[in-house]
Amino acid sequence: MLKKIIAVFAEKFSGQPVVFRSPGRINILGEHTDYNEGFVLPAAIDKNIYVAISKRTDKQVNLYACDFEQVYSTDIETIKPASIQWPNYILGVVDQLQKNGHIVGGFNLVIDGDIPIGAGLSSSAAIECAVVFALNEIFELGLSRLQMVPLAQKAEHVFAGVNCGIMDQFASMFGKKGHALKLDCRSLEYEYIPIGLTGYKIILFNSNVKHNLVSTEYNTRRKQCEEGVAIIAIGHPAVKSLRDVNMQMLNAHAADMDAVVFKRCKYVIEENERLLGACIDLQKGDMKALGKKMFETHYGLQHEYEVSCKEIDFLVDFVKDKEAVAGARMVGGGFGGCTINLIKEEASEKLIEQIKAAYQNEMGLTLSVYSVSVEDGTSKT
Ligand code: GLA
User: Fold this and answer.
1) Which of 23, 216, 230, 277 has the most CB atoms within 10 Å of its CB?
2) What's the CATH fold of domain 2-195?
3) From 3.30.70.20, 3.40.50.2000, 3.30.70.890, 3.20.20.370, which CATH number describes the 200-372 domain?
């Protein structure tokens, strides 16, 4: 991948680039909790976005995406959202840097990677993190990782139109080999928890579907949670987010809110509680207990938060009663993408064969399978 991106850079532009990488992420537990100021438990994986970059002496920005074999050029002083999507993850970062008073000059950039797009593994956050890290380095902006993360997140809000939480960018930037990141999305305090898999593997099943609902439904979920908070806050002025709400408080207000809003809030409150237990399971290496919580999370995402889809539910249902599987659930925003599975090492090969065949038969779709390892966050290569 490195050799290829340098060769492509030499072919498209001139000069010697510097190459940066930023990983995709999985999330062990804590889905749709980040923008509710709750907890998440992601980890960076061995799939990356790479950017090869060099400074220019003028104000020109030239971008080339290997996946799309497409060039996009603009002037650094007139950055605005492009009509095609991929440049926006890059330009959105430039825009945020400029809005925060940082001076960025012209540059040439080639982007490549092996994070599947639309698979719920945060390829977009990985682009934003790789780009902000690269620009920070080559233009010597002096930003810390903690300062870069919200800029990358904001780029997604403004140029990609998804009001995402902070989990993906945080995980990509702060990932640590062999560790999950327990992040408090309110205070941004975090703790690394070693992932001892005690005979299990983390295997992702990519449904290879991406329903076109992601950004609209995502933003709707966020609003529904805010609606619940606003109702509860009438009687409890200290309540600022679902992080401040427990089930007793929610139940006490059930009659004041729409049944759908109630379901959304219930899921988030329970997911936060589950996550605290999951961290203990992970520390103890108790994969069975952790896996049980993953199945519970999936149930909540499917029936209460309603962000799953039939293909993903099929994949979770298929492994549910298998002795070799401790747990499984959808990962990321939802409406397609991957499931994350904890599968006994010795049984994984056979199970993969079975599920691939069943998925093809029942859904008429090809399943992609990734056995992932947990790696470090954004870096210069
Ligand atoms: C997407 C968002 C994250 C998070 C997840 C759901 O990946 O980018 O901020 O909300 O969905 O947990």
Assistant:
1) 23
2) Ribosomal Protein S5; domain 2 (3.30.230)
3) 3.30.70.890
pLDDT block averages, 10 residues each, the chain of length 381: 95 93 98 98 98 97 97 97 96 98 98 95 97 98 98 96 94 98 98 94 96 82 98 95 97 97 98 97 96 98 97 98 97 96 97 98 98 98 97
Q: What is the pLDDT of residue 213?
A: 65
CA of 306 to the centre of ligand 1 (A): 14
Domain boundaries, the chain: 2-195, 200-372
> What residues contact residue 20 under an 8 Å CB cut-off, 6+ apart?
50, 51, 53, 130, 133, 134, 137, 378, 379, 380, 381
Residue 377 confidence (pLDDT): 98
Of 164, 272, 331, the one to substitute when testing ligand 1's pocket (max ligand atoms within 8 A of C-beta) is 164
Query: What is the number of the ligand 1 atom nearest to the C-alpha of 156?
Result: 8
CA atoms within 13 A on the CB side of 189: 1
- Closest ligand 1 atom to 218 CA: 11
What residues are labeled active site?
168
